[in-house]
Amino acid sequence: MPDRQLLHLVIGGELEDVEGVKFRDLSKIDLVGAYASHGEALAAWRAKAQATVDNALMRYFIIHAHKLLDPGTGDEHDHKH
Question: Structure pTM?
Fold first, then answer.
């Protein structure tokens, strides 16, 4: 049986404050990409997070899009980044 595609999206942007998750300007969201595995998404997230480490308000997130498309799909990596 072939591996299922578990779609993950990586996005980022500047937040209004470090305690929340509200983006300052939605028109400036960085849509990094779509990835078929958590590992690929994590690598992209890590690269963007490291590249913007000097800006405390700049944050990147992995969205488990496969769970939105098919809530029955599981993923052993179900945590925030």
Answer: 0.79
